[in-house]
Backbone:
């Protein structure tokens, strides 16, 4: 039953950059970017609404074992689904199993490179221009603070300021300042 | 030609840089002149003072009580209180970031940039990455200076010069930075757009080992996107340009120790990669 499912990738609200073996996807709604390695990219490209999981599995190179290949496809599909990159409902072959268990189960058995989807998210406060005057009373150079300085709540009347993380006058602005307020 | 003009009520300068049109207004002639001088100092030929209509951004500056200046971004209605001492640096910094966000035909990536053999080495990085220090070390080895702040990419992913004065931390590690004008570096300054040969993502750490690792095109793009200013505001164009960049350039990463040591290793890495030798 699982292998007869027909996955369809989401296309709306995404900016997609194709490369020979890989894909880079930017989700405009979530402000997240994803890089898909060759195995994940092959599965992604195959999810056109016309192919079953079993058919997609047959497109994978490197092994003659169809069950092994299907597991790899499901590993990719689970990641794509989790990252909101699949448009339709799919019931996973691995439901109830942790990612670690699945990877161990599939990874040990297969000679195929496992699908990997790396993600980067862009919350507003970590944007390259995240530390303007609204956060930092004094912003010396681009991105908010001068090189080596951080944007930190000094507790003074000005609130957030660009300060040296090593300045003893700013005991609360040590290296433990969360990256979300560190100037880019 | 300066478009500064003196009126009884409002002083105003208007200018354009990378296609972004900006107006700055203040009640005080002295204030507006300080901003104009600062912009000219940092941007040089990359910013043209001229009369414009329909500005993309407008800022108002007014003096508040005591030693405070209020900067207001008119179109977004954000206000920023600033100390009067050195306020023009803060105003210029905000303007520079707005230009980086709004330049629709260019992609600004936070990075240090030098050129070696007619190809750019781009060093994306955050404030703590020490990119200015590394750029300075590379320039001292003979690389052409392009920028310590932004890799400015055109639609073909060529890297344009953005040779603003280098912001260098004092040797004692004080928070205050000094600025070194590009022309005082005693090194060549990039004048023309160049193709990018290497994007190197590196972060300083005291005990960090130099272990360069080449990244795949998509992995590399993901690392560059992290430092790309208009990725949210001009996503499609930004990614197209970065894809072209990643097609042509080697993208690699490593932690690093002291800049002067790593600069030599980086140039060797670049030269050997450029002639097709793998060092990974």
Residues:
């Amino acid at each position: 039953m699982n292998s007869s499912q027909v996955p369809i990738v989401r296309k709306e609200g995404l900016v997609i950059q194709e490369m020979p073996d890989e894909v880079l996807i930017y989700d405009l709604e979530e402000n997240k970017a994803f890089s898909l390695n060759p195995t994940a990219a092959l599965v992604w490209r195959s999810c056109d609404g016309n192919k079953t999981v079993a058919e997609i599995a047959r497109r994978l190179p490197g092994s003659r074992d169809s069950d092994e290949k299907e597991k790899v496809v499901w590993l990719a599909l689970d990641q794509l689904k989790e990252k909101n990159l699949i448009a339709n409902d799919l019931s996973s072959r691995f439901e109830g199993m942790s990612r670690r268990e699945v990877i161990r189960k599939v990874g040990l058995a297969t000679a195929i490179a496992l699908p990997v989807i790396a993600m980067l998210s862009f919350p507003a406060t970590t944007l390259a221009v995240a530390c303007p005057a609204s956060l930092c009373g004094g912003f010396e150079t681009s991105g908010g603070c001068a090189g080596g300085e951080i944007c930190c709540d000094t507790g003074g009347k000005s609130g957030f300021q660009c300060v040296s993380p090593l300045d003893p006058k700013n005991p609360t602005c040590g290296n433990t300042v969360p990256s979300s307020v560190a100037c880019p | 030609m300066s478009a500064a003009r003196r009126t009884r009520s409002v002083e105003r300068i208007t200018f354009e840089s990378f296609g972004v049109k900006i107006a700055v207004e203040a009640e005080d002639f002295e204030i507006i002149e300080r901003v104009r001088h600062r912009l000219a100092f940092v941007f040089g030929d990359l910013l043209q003072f001229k009369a414009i209509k329909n500005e993309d951004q407008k800022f108002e500056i007014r003096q508040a009580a005591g030693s405070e200046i209020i900067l207001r971004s008119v179109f977004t209605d954000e206000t920023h209180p600033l100390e009067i001492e050195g306020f023009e640096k803060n105003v210029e910094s905000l303007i520079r970031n707005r230009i980086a966000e709004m330049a629709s035909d260019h992609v600004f990536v936070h990075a240090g940039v030098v050129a070696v053999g007619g190809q750019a080495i781009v060093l994306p990085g955050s404030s703590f990455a020490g990119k200015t220090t590394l750029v300075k070390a590379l320039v001292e080895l003979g690389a052409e200076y392009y920028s310590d702040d932004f890799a400015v990419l055109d639609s073909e992913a060529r890297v344009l010069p953005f040779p603003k004065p280098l912001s260098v931390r004092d040797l004692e590690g004080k928070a205050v930075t000094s600025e070194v004008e590009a022309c005082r570096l005693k090194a060549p300054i990039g004048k023309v757009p160049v193709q990018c040969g290497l994007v190197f993502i590196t972060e300083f750490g005291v005990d960090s080992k130099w272990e360069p690792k080449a990244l795949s095109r998509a992995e590399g793009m993901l690392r560059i996107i992290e430092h790309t200013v208009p990725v949210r505001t001009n996503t499609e164009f930004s990614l197209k340009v970065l894809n072209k960049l990643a097609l042509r350039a080697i993208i690699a990463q490593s932690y690093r120790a002291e800049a002067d040591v790593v600069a030599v290793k980086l140039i060797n890495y670049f030269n050997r990669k450029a002639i097709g030798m793998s060092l990974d």
Summary: Helices of chain B lie at 29-43, 87-102, 131-140, 217-225, 235-248, 259-274. Residues 157 and 245 of chain B are 5 Å apart (CA to CA).
